[in-house]
Amino acid sequence: MTIFGWLQIGLVLIAVLLLVKPLGLYMARVFSGDRTWLSPVLAPIETGLYRIAGIRADKEQGWLGYALAVLAFSLAGFLALYGMLRLQHLLPLNPQGFAGLPPDLAFNTAVSFVTNTNWQNYGGESTMSHFSQMAGLTVQNFLSAATGMAVAIAVSRALVRSKVSELGNFWVDMTRATLYVLLPLSLVVTLAFIAMGLPQSLDASFVATTLEGAQQTIATGPVASQEAIKQLGTNGGGFFNVNAAHPFENPSAFSNYLNIIAMLSVSLALVYAFGQMVGSRRQGWALIAVTIVLLTTGIGLVYWAETGGNPVLHAVGVDALQGNMEGKEVRFGQAMSALYGTVTTGLSNGGVNAMHSSLTPLGGLVPMFLIQLGEVLPGGVGSGLYGMIVFAILAVFVAGLMVGRTPEFLGKKIEAREMKLAMLAVLILPLAILGFTAVSAVAEFGVGSITTPGPHGLSEILYAFSSAAGNNGSAFGGLTGNTPWYNTTLALAMLLGRFAYIVPVLAIAGSLAAKPRAEASSGTFPTDRPLFVGLLIGIILIMGGLQFFPALALGPIAEHFAMLAGQSF
């Protein structure tokens, strides 16, 4: 580790924190229905969209109606994208003449992008037409992100309202998230990416002659626009197979900085917007503090592990001062690879600028563990916020048990119904991750896809299902995922991680909205103080991570001790 490396990391985090307040205030105004500086241009478009779709913007929905709207909209998006991928060879803007996707791969990909996971069992530049990239994948990058934001806003309203059954209107919230937040930001970031050298064209691949005289096919296309919403919407699905390690997606240190800033800014700003909407900015900062503490700890651990290097390589004469550069781009180095890998898994982004499978065992453990914590640091746009609120509810319940009082969160009493629903939500991840991993680790059709036997092979499988159920989308590498078994089971894990979580969360919101909002008293446990921040961190680590420790002990931890003993797998 070097001072220069920490300076690089610090500059990115400072830039993000400077954006949190202005962007958060703007989003709070958007979702409160207040006028913004973009309203003169966008309000007529918004009204026109409601008129075309037959939506009454003033008609709100209860939690069940809101949840059904989310499910129906996502199902429609899945069917449209699945059909588009299967019929790709018949659709326009396919200059390379790519065939339609097989049924299992099309199913996996459609589920992946609709759930904001963006797991990719294909190489984008060798599989997807420009039409599929733009009209299919990029559109879902916007809509899946907007859906998560809408659910988070509905939960935020529930904590403000008193004795009502309505949470808002999903169609209005989703439209505003897309029109007022994601589209303008994507336009700005796209133009910045183009200026940095990212391609943005409808040309087919072209053939170049290398310095050695060989012929090389170089793919191009509408890269910059997809890259922008990939990061802002915490989608992570890259235009190219190697994602942000590809020089057309991430050509320089400046584009790498913008990638990380873009992926963090909206999710963290939405947490600030939550504080603004519930009438307590300190509450928003308390949740942001939890994120920063755990995220910077993760960054430090990965950076330390990667600069420490691998004793197995030291034994064969590799310079220990170089640390571990395997699987990393020289133009980014260890510090920015550690930052990117930690941020993308603390978020539910999933984009990568280095090969996670090539990290040291402890370096690879951190990204996997961050996903398993529930993708709340700060998680996906929207999904991270409502996931953090679930953990906050669990934290105040524990605090209430300690002092013998009925727990409250922002004036709402937390009772048996909310706790049952909260536990149902947090148990979804271990059920999907550990269940599918257990079967895949013993069945021939699961083990046959790993490239490295032993603890590392288990890590490949465990990371895959953690990433899918956590709606992250990054891959540990080495696992051949494009098989009927993994295409199907990973897709099922994605569906469980997204919708089996959203439904109980909205049910919690409906229950809280129907309760009166009590004023804070001398006996109220404050949830905007350092004590609560520490308690919430503890709950996240225990409830989110402890249940995965036995599996981690058999995978990356076992591999770490083998590495110290000079063994390799």
Strand tally = 6
Provide a count of the helices: 22
Helix-and-strand structural type? mainly alpha
* Low-pLDDT sequence parts: none
Cα(first) to Cα(last) distance is: 27 Å
| Radius of gyration over all CA atoms, rounded | 23 Å
Determine the fraction of residues in helical runs and give it as a percent range.
55-70%
Describe the biggest sheet? 2 strands, antiparallel
Order of helices and strands: HHEHHHHEHEEHHHHHHHEEHHHHHHHH
Strand content: under 5%
- Multimer state: single chain
Net shape: globular
Placed side by side, the strands forming the largest sheet appear as 1-2
Average pLDDT, rounded to a whole number, is: 91
Transmembrane segments: 6-28, 63-85, 142-160, 180-198, 257-274, 286-305, 385-403, 424-443, 490-510, 531-554
Protein name: Potassium-transporting ATPase potassium-binding subunit
Keywords: Cell membrane, Ion transport, Membrane, Potassium, Potassium transport, Transmembrane, Transmembrane helix, Transport
Subunit structure: The system is composed of three essential subunits: KdpA, KdpB and KdpC.
